Amino acid sequence: MNAQPQQISLFAEIASAYAASTDGVLDNDSLYSTVAERIGTTPEALGTRTPIGRAGVPRSTVKRKIRWYQQTLKQLGIIEHVPGERGVWQLSENAGKDLHRAATGVTLVTFSTDLGIAIWGNHQDVFRQINAPIALCISSPPYPLRKARAYGGPDEREYVDFICGALEPIVRSLIPGGSIVLNLSGDVFEPKKSSRSLYLERLVLALNDRLGLALMDRIPWVNYSKPPAPTYWACVNRVQLTTAYEPIYWFTNDPGRVRSDNRRVLEAHSAQHQRLMALGGEGRLSSYGDGAYRLRPGSFGQVTAGRIPRNVIERGHACSDTAAYRRRAHALGLPTHGAMQPTSIPDFFIRFLTEPGDLVVDPFGGTVKTGLAAERLGRRWLVTEWMLEYLCGAAEMFRGFAGFEMNKVLQNVGSAA
After folding, report:
1. Which of 200, 152, 204 is nearest to 364 (CA)?
2. Can you give the three-state secondary structure of the chain, one letter per residue?
3. pLDDT band at residue 7 using 50, 70 and 90 as cut-offs
4. Which among 115, 104, 117 has a CA at the least distance from the CA of 5?
5. Most buried by CB count within 10 Å: which residue of 52, 68, 292, 372?
6. Spatial distance between the Cα atoms of 309 and 2, rounded to a whole number of angstroms
7. Domains of the chain, with CATH numbers?
8. How much is the pLDDT for 122?
9. How many angstroms separate the most distant Cα atoms in the chain?
10. What pLDDT, on a 0 to 100 scale, did the predictor assign at position 9?
């Protein structure tokens, strides 16, 4: 797809070399020559030695770089040393038991379809290379929680800089009238106080001041099945009410050309409205609010395709896609994500803010719900995620889509692979 970086990283070439070798076993000399051929390096260049370090010891810079990535694969548990064999490594049989976070500069295409691509790596490393026009970025970034989830995240003090830094390269590629949608948390409190943090307000102002984004709306995601929170201030000290919503913020780079269209997300009319349309509308004349609103005969009689949604989304967090992801991740022996959005959230905004063929991105991909919704709606997509196991589990949800391809080296991640 157009959004894919032009060159797969050296890390990916090394991983693929092991995957393509007999039984996943490769000695270092074979690794060097195989990778050199893949990246177009001549044997002469591979053997060229350059003084390295203070001692000026002659070393091959290409081989040094290959060995560095090889050690990264070892740390991830993807390859292991062959016992009793010097300089010989093989694919591990038990990779992927713990969460492995992508190192800086390491990017790896995890899986792809005809429409999209999921990349393991830091979002900054990926999106700085992307020049394709982006229509929508929709994401649920890590929240600045006092006790971070397993996948980590920044604290409140650095959160504004973190989000602005993540979005800057995406905003640079955003088409005129494109949108940024962020699902954040309102359950962040001042240290040792029952008062809520103002980090959301600071973030909104920073996105406008630093990146030139205009706030189109604040849309509460109401979820009455949320666990009671904040536990300490609501359930223990009894000074707060339990939260039943999360804020979703919608921004654009150009309100005059914003590409939203509420006709793409119309909802079914109520039974009462359907009766009114069938009868030709209201039969009475009434005035409300000192004449500000008038009800005339025939009102609500025009037959329309549906009603315009309110700017409040009511959804539970239960989701059949989440249940399927968990089943498949457990079957593979992979850890599951601790905070998953229902696919219906990105589905709504993708329909509302994009058209078929547009590019939708998510820099904090998690279990790739954004990609899943985009795939079903015929949009191109690009997702990055820095935890390898989440992507490997999510890949199982895409196997039935056209052009699905899993990185061969990652077929070994998980006990059942």
Report:
1. 152
2. CCCCCCCCCHHHHHHHHHHHCHHHEEEHHHHHHHHHHHCCCCHHHHHCCEEECCCCEEECHHHHHHHHHHHHHHHCCCEEECCCCCCEEEECCCECCCCCECCCCCCEEEEECCCEEEEECCHHHHHCCCCCCEEEEEECCCCCCCCCCCCCCCCHHHHHHHHHHHHHHHHHCEEEEEEEEEECCCCCECCCCCCECCHHHHHHHHHHHHHCCEEEEEEEEECCCCCCCCHHHHHHCCCCCCCCEEEEEEEECCHHHCCCCHHHHCECCCHHHHHHHHHCCCCCCEEECCCCEEECCCCCCCCCCCECCCCCEECCCCCHHHHHHHHHHHHCCCCCCCCCCCCHHHHHHHHHHCCCCCEEEECCCCCCHHHHHHHHCCCEEEEEECEHHHHHHHHHHHCCCCCCEECHHHHHECCCC
3. very low
4. 117
5. 372
6. 33
7. 1-92 (1.10.10.10), 98-257+308-412 (3.40.50.150), 268-304 (no CATH)
8. 87
9. 94
10. 57
Asked if 222 and 244 count as a contact pair (C-beta separation under 8 A), the reply is yes
Q: What is the mean pLDDT of the chain?
A: 86
Instruction: Give the predicted TM-score (pTM) of the model.
Output: 0.78
Mean pLDDT, rounded, for 112-117: 97
Q: Which amino acid is at 369?
A: K
